[in-house]
Amino acid sequence: xxxxxxxxxxxxxxxxxxxxxxxxxxxxxxxxxxxxxxxxxxxxxxxxxxxxxxxxxxxxxxxxxxxxxxxxxxx
Length: 75
Hints:
Helix content is 41%, strand content 27%. By secondary structure, it is an alpha+beta fold. The protein has one domain (2-74): 2-Layer Sandwich (GMP Synthetase, Chain A, domain 3), CATH 3.30.300.20. A three-stranded mixed β-sheet has the order 1-2-3.
């Protein structure tokens, strides 16, 4: 899942070298934290959070095949 979030985020931002994705496993639950440059924060979140919601939906669909719960946090 970490790689999926990283690929999507790097495609959206102007500074792909500053994208950092960390993954924390807690049993069946996994938290993926996405760090981007301050100037790219708006591009990752989108108007009214639409892009962030889309990223979370894609990750949720991919993680449901593995019977895991994955949360994406944009930091």
